Amino acid sequence: MKDNVTPDKTSAREVDLSRFRSIIAKYSDTTLSELVPVLQSLQDSYGYLPMEVLEELSASTGIPLSKIYGVVTFYAQFHLEPRGKHIVKLCSGTACHIKGAPDIEKRIADILQVEEGQTTQDYKFTYKAVACIGACFLAPVMMIDDRYYGKLTEEKTENILKNY
Amino acid sequence: MDKLETCDDLERLRKSLVSEESKEKIRILICTTGCRALGAEEVYRTFQAEIENQSLADKVEIIDTGCQGLCTRAPVLTIEPMGVFYGRVTENDVHEIISRTVLKGEVIERLCYTQEGKRIPYIKDIDFYRKQKKLVLRNCGSINPKNINDYIKRNGYAAISKALSGMSAEDVIHEVVSSGLRGRGGAGFPTGKKWELAKNAKGDVKYVICNGDEGDPGAFMDRAVLEGDPHSVIEGMLICAYAIGSGKGIIYVREEYPIAVEHLNIAVDNARSLGLLGENILGSGFCFDIEVKMGAGAFVCGEETALIASIEGRRGMPCPRPPYPSTSGLWGKPTNINNVETLANIPVIIFEGADSYRSIGTETSKGTKIFALAGNVNNTGLVEVPMGTSLREIVFDIGGGIPKRKQFKAAQMGGPSGGCVPEKYLDTPIDYESVKEIGAIMGSGGLIIMDDSTSMVEIARYFMEFCQNESCGKCTPCRVGTQRMLEILTRILAGEGKKEDLSLLSELAEVTRNSSLCGLGQTSANPVISTLYYFQNEYEELIAEKV
């Protein structure tokens, strides 16, 4: 993992801990109750949750690393690996499923040359299938970062991805 | 914004907002939430530019709203006061809409909704809208959710004001009890009763939690309410807090809903700066504030006890009940948890009174229910109907039937905890009890329509895959049961099914249902049980085919 390259081309070995310190300073009360929001902020900043950052978090808050790791691995939102510049989330809700999401899924994997859950070699895209994103009326639908793309066809999907 | 010091201040503000509103102004209401996916924001910006270019700001106003319901025509807009409804609007249509419809009152046929081959320009004539009853969605799609004044103008915060100025906590609870409102999150527990338990629980600190962790595949009503009318949820929480004696509220919302998070944060900030949240609300001495927390992506967190664990910063795993959250919830304190749609009902009940609310619905289920209508149906979108409406009315009258001249096969109700309802129950009036009898549940209201090309075994496999992924793993029946059922379903679909598989599936389903710790596990087998019951022939055909 440590040999991977983060999106901003900083080696994971040289995780910039000053960013960590400025984020952690915003939380007056870094007890367990703030753990999820702190992790969300850290991930927003780093793009993922580097192990060095988690170790530092444990050391500065006194929350055991095992507990932090347990929370990080429980929720779908958190990632321990660097991710791409753009996150492609294909909805796999029921409406999308019956309206052809499985075909779109294969197509995206084909275009990006990655499996679901993986990041492209150039760190441009991370591709995930996610549970319902609540836009069933647009099925099949995907989100790239915070933007929705609805009523997808294989061709439309390809054009959208090309424009990134 | 000046703080509102008394209930009279609020009423004065409302009156001045109503009188300031220019009656002559034409308002173009465009959905910029769900419709964003099909370019609504670009259309909105083009309207803004066009209004400025033509110096029409005195005559015309463009307002960005939440969901207007008929999502299938996205991006949609309504032009008031004429009540013209347009769909599939693009940037290129903007100039023509302004010059023809807004300035001359002409209708542009190609943008109108089609009903039985005819173009229907006015919203009041569209069956999709005519046959609904909008109570919870009363503001959704017709106000700007980012502007608290829009909500106040439509009697927003008048219900909490009514409660604070003339009702005791007992009165409020009595009103909610007699309204007959039941939890819209799925199980249908009487809301007033839940509040009563929290009120009677001992403790000086109590919490009100809004469960906005709607994660059922196929449900989007909570998202639409949070995005389109966040203040109605905040007002519902205020009334609940007043009734049970709580000073702190938390809205737990999915991080997958960025627009909902954005609108909620704006709404909470605005309510706070007007003094509708915080200390001494409207001079009554009542104090209550709200914090918005983002979930981190786990379906099981819809379960009350798991949600509490998640807010406490732990893995979101459920705990056995009792103790119920109403006596020992967040940080061990009495906690009342309601779902988004439930809370959005509250201001209506308090403002209009329980009697008027009770008059809608069936004997056991009062009020309305919002359904997220999707799948193989012409009018996908958000539908609010009185309890007791039949599936046929929802699917055919409101939903416009099945596309491509295909046949209705089943309606999947209630997400992974629900079941598939076959054609013969199309005329059953839908309420909490009747859906249970036919093997589904109300759930949060996801309603996926399937046509005759859908494989019901594949649907069962799909839901099982979802539940198996989302099982938290704490209890064995759920962790292992879903795994084994998924294996069998996958095998049958791969053409390697055996005759004994069906009885094995039933057995596994029963054990998982009867012995899992929480609702996720207990109901995970429902799609399997209902498809096995109503569509056994499809399983048998798949098993026979391989021979």
Protein traits:
heterodimer; A: 164 residues; alpha+beta; 4-stranded mixed beta sheet; 4 strands; 41% helix; disordered N terminus; B: 547 residues; alpha/beta; 5-stranded mixed beta sheet; 22 helices; 42% helix; globular
List the helices and strands and how they pair.
The complex is a heterodimer of chains A (164) and B (547).
Chain A: H1 17-24, H2 35-46, H3 51-61, H4 65-74, E1 86-91, H5 94-98, H6 101-112, E2 125-130, E3 142-144, E4 147-149, H7 154-162
Parallel strand pairs in A: 1-2
Antiparallel strand pairs in A: 1-3, 3-4
Chain B: H1 7-20, E1 26-31, H2 40-53, E2 60-65, E3 77-80, E4 84-86, H3 94-104, E5 113-115, E6 118-120, H4 127-130, H5 148-153, H6 158-166, H7 169-179, H8 191-200, E7 207-212, H9 221-228, H10 230-244, E8 248-253, H11 258-273, E9 289-294, H12 304-311, E10 335-339, H13 340-352, H14 354-358, E11 368-375, E12 381-386, H15 391-398, E13 408-413, E14 419-422, H16 432-437, E15 446-451, H17 456-470, H18 476-493, H19 501-515, H20 519-524, H21 526-534, H22 536-545
Parallel strand pairs in B: 1-2, 7-8, 7-10, 8-9, 11-15
Antiparallel strand pairs in B: 1-3, 3-4, 5-6, 11-12, 13-14, 13-15
Helix pairs in contact in B: 6-10, 6-13, 7-8, 7-10, 9-10, 9-11, 10-13, 17-18, 17-21, 18-19, 19-21
What is the compact description of this entry?
Chain A has helices at 17-24, 35-46, 51-61, 65-74, 94-98, 101-112, 154-162; strands at residues 86-91, 125-130, 142-144, 147-149. Helix content of chain A is 41%, strand content 11%.
Tell me what you see in this structure.
The complex is a heterodimer of chains A (164) and B (547). Chain A is of the alpha+beta class and 164 residues long. In chain A, 41% of the residues lie in helices and 11% in strands. Chain A has helices at 17-24, 35-46, 51-61, 65-74, 94-98, 101-112, 154-162, and strands at residues 86-91, 125-130, 142-144, 147-149. Chain A has a 4-stranded mixed sheet with strand order 2-1-3-4, covered by helices on one side. In chain A, a hairpin with a 2-residue loop joins strand 3 and strand 4 (147-149). Chain B has a 5-stranded mixed sheet with strand order 12-11-15-13-14. A 4-stranded mixed sheet of chain B has the order 2-1-3-4, with helices on one face. Chain B has a 4-stranded parallel sheet with strand order 9-8-7-10, sandwiched between helices. Chain B has helices at 7-20, 40-53, 94-104, 127-130, 148-153, 158-166, 169-179, 191-200, 221-228, 230-244, 258-273, 304-311, 340-352, 354-358, 391-398, 432-437, 456-470, 476-493, 501-515, 519-524, 526-534, 536-545, and strands spanning 26-31, 60-65, 77-80, 84-86, 113-115, 118-120, 207-212, 248-253, 289-294, 335-339, 368-375, 381-386, 408-413, 419-422, 446-451. The model of chain B has no long low-confidence stretch (mean pLDDT 95). By secondary structure, chain B is α/β, with parallel strands linked by helices. Chain B contains 22 helices and 15 strands. Chains A and B meet through helix 2, helix 4, helix 5 and strand 4 of A and strand 11, strand 15 and helix 17 of B.
